[in-house]
TrEMBL record:
It comes from the Eukaryota. InterPro entries: GADD45, Ribosomal_eL30-like_sf, Ribosomal_eL8/eL30/eS12/Gad45. Belongs to the GADD45 family. PANTHER family: FI09246P, GROWTH ARREST AND DNA DAMAGE-INDUCIBLE PROTEIN GADD45. Residues 31-111 form the Ribosomal protein eL8/eL30/eS12/Gadd45 domain. This is Growth arrest and DNA damage-inducible protein GADD45 gamma isoform X2. One of its GO terms (biological process) is regulation of cell cycle. Pfam families: Ribosomal_L7Ae. GO terms for cellular component: cytoplasm; nucleus.
Length: 167
């Protein structure tokens, strides 16, 4: 699913009270992320996410963490701290299988100029290992509700499920 066919993905999502299958949650999460991207409700990157959480934790609906950073010890420590902060502040945390898949979904494929991002000339960041989704200004979309329902139905499951995003 790309930004161009976001509406097609949303039409495939059905609202129900049952636990969603892995395919359903993948579609719902993709649609939720793309809608948030289009509405400017995403914060990407570990350091930008930490800054957002420090300033406005009440505005964060969901924290999406990639679960593929086993080799980078420093990043794992940051993730552990972010996850603990989110749990302490009642922010939902969902894990996905790969930051590269988040980058394929949300990035535009062009190289990131860090100077433009730091200077505020570009809102796009190249780090998709952690993505925060803010609450919408209006009501939650169907995809938002499906993702939140999935979280609620799995919040007592340990270990927490890791959502496998399509390539």
């Amino acid at each position: 699913m790309t930004r161009g066919n976001i509406n097609k993905g949303a039409a495939q999502i059905s609202k129900s009270g049952r636990t969603m299958s892995p395919m359903d949650i993948r579609s719902a999460l993709q649609t939720c992320l793309l809608e948030a991207w289009e509405q400017g409700r995403l914060t990407c990157g570990v350091y930008h996410a930490a800054s957002m959480l420090e300033k406005n934790p009440d505005e964060v609906m969901l924290c999406v963490l990639a679960d593929d950073n086993f080799q980078d010890v420093a990043l794992r420590i940051h993730f552990t701290l972010l996850e603990a902060f989110c749990w302490e502040n009642d922010i939902r945390v969902i894990k996905v299988d790969a930051s590269s898949k988040l980058a394929n979904l949300l990035g535009d494929g062009e190289p990131v100029n860090d100077n433009d991002v730091a200077a505020g000339r570009s809102a796009r960041q190249g780090d998709f290992s952690c993505v925060l989704i803010e609450y919408p200004k209006d009501d939650n979309s169907v995809a938002d509700e499906e993702v939140l329902d999935f979280y609620k139905s799995n919040e007592d499951v340990l270990p927490r499920p890791v959502i496998t995003l399509p390539d």
